[in-house]
Specification:
- With 300 residues, this protein is an alpha/beta fold.
- It contains seven helices and 17 strands.
- It is 25% helix and 27% strand.
- Strand 2, helix 2 and strand 3 form a beta-alpha-beta unit.
- The radius of gyration is 21 Å and the shape is elongated.
- Bound molecules: flavin-adenine dinucleotide.
- Flavin-adenine dinucleotide (FAD) binds next to helix 1, strand 2 and helix 7.
């Protein structure tokens, strides 16, 4: 029986695990993809104190190594269900059930999809949600980035250094992204902005060949080798439906101790209902959730 099982090996979950282990608790952390979470997709991080510049993958690896060195049990596995019977949680993977006195749910978010029919068919064959992961496949080619926030602008900047041409397709006529990022992008000579545009279709046989877009009510075709979708994210709370309270957008609700409506079940990081989703707020949440999970354990 674990004192705590942490679901999600991103910055929030790894921080929580580090705090719990340093309080001499028996703790396991489960990660279904990459320890380090979303930040492993960032080419460079410049706003995490202590590191003036570090790649996201290196930062994620350092966080995992720190947890492991302390004795946190790190598992590569997906949690598919959580139940509670009496005071004990059952944390369930495809082939095993683990028991724990508390759970910290730190499953983060996943990129939002365009929601058009051809999208699924072309994932991996021209449709991507991660420029830093897949950009290199588009060296000297033409790509489109869809979106207008920081991620879209970061992606376009990154791709402009690899690709021949980058279209930025945005549904409004101004960007939500930080002005300094937008200014840097506007200085690039291989970038073309298409404003007031929505993506209606993806065309191609085996791989993406063109995008069908509507600009100011007029249909247009943009020839492209790839499309990078950067239109926000959705919380990974699907396995929690009906288990505890979520807000209208599916984000986890909690009190100021980050405990949910289920006693002993805490949330941390981007998965919860909060305004600022950054590394520092994720690690802060991990600290708070672990501290109150430790208090809860001391009352059992
Ligand atoms: C491209 C990019 C660049 C960014 N750059 C910066 C930056 O420069 N500075 C900054 O402060 N922030 C940046 N961010 C934001 C930052 O990465 C996030 O705020 C932070 O990673 C959130 O941490 P988290 O632990 O809450 O969630 P996540 O990082 O999303 O981690 C959650 C983890 O849980 C795992 N998981 C989900 N469901 C399950 C399950 N059922 N079972 C097991 N595991 C599961 C996921 O695979 C994931 O690894 C960036 C994000 C992106 C995408």
């Amino acid at each position: 029986m674990y004192d705590c099982i942490v679901v999600g090996g991103g910055p929030a979950g790894l921080t929580a695990a580090i705090y719990l282990k340093r309080a001499c608790k028996k703790v396991a952390i489960f990660e279904r993809e990459v320890f380090g979470g979303q930040i492993t997709k960032a080419t460079e991080v410049e706003n995490y104190p202590g590191f003036d510049r570090i790649s996201g993958m290196e930062l994620g690896n350092k966080m995992k190594a720190q947890a492991e060195d302390l004795g946190v049990e790190c598992f590569y596995d997906e949690i598919i269900q959580i139940e509670k019977n009496g005071d004990v949680f059952q944390v369930i993977t495809v082939d095993k059930t683990y028991e724990s006195k508390t759970v910290i749910y730190a499953a983060g978010t996943s990129p939002r999809k365009l929601g058009i029919k051809e999208e699924e068919k072309f994932i991996g064959n021209g449709v991507s949600y991660c420029a830093t992961c897949d950009g290199a496949f588009y060296k000297d080619k033409t790509v489109c980035v869809v979106g207008g926030g920081n991620t879209a602008i970061d992606d376009a900047l990154y791709l402009s250094n690899i690709c021949k041409k980058v279209y930025v397709i945005h549904r409004r006529d101004s960007f939500r992204a930080e002005p300094i990022k937008v200014s840097s992008l506007k200085e690039k000579d291989n970038i073309e902005f298409i404003y007031n545009a929505t993506v209606e279709g993806i065309m191609g046989n085996d791989k993406v060949e063109a995008l069908e877009i509507v600009v100011n009510d007029k249909k247009m075709e943009v020839k492209t080798d790839g499309v990078f979708v950067a239109i926000g994210s959705t919380p990974n709370t699907e396995i929690l439906d009906n288990f505890f309270s979520l807000d209208a957008n599916g984000y986890a609700l909690s009190n100021h101790e980050l405990e949910t409506s289920v006693a002993g079940l805490f949330v941390a990081g981007d998965v919860r209902d909060k305004q600022v989703k950054q590394l520092t707020t994720a690690t802060s949440d991990g600290t708070v959730a672990a501290t109150f999970a430790i208090d809860y354990l001391n009352t059992l």
